[in-house]
Amino acid sequence: MTDLTTYPLKKQYSKVRVSDCARPWHRGGSFRQFYRSLPDILGVKTLRAVAKAVADGKLKGTEVFPARMQLTIDAIGLSITLDGEIKLE
User: Is residue 11 part of a domain?
Assistant: First the structure.
């Protein structure tokens, strides 16, 4: 990789802010504390929407949903798609 260019991290534009990141879980902490500490990005927004729909009675909590997640890292030409399902229990 002779064409690799580096630059200072401070100059890197990012769509993710520090405030978006999770806070560390502490031994003895409750599930509620853990759940609230999750970052508000990626699948957590969906998890919270599903949890709210169950709590609001819009879902029974036993549904099965097809799910797909894609990871792409353009810099190295990586693209992976994971297919599966989410089962609410």
Answer: no
pTM of this prediction exceeds 0.85: no
Total domains in the fold of the chain: 1
Q: Would you say 50 and 88 are in contact if contact means Cβ atoms under 8 Å apart?
A: yes
Task: Classify residue 33: in a domain, yes or no.
Answer: yes
Q: What is the pLDDT of residues 23-57, one digit of tens each?
A: 777 788 887 787 777 777 767 777 788 788 878 88
First to last CA, the chain: 48
Residue 35: which domain range?
A: 16-87
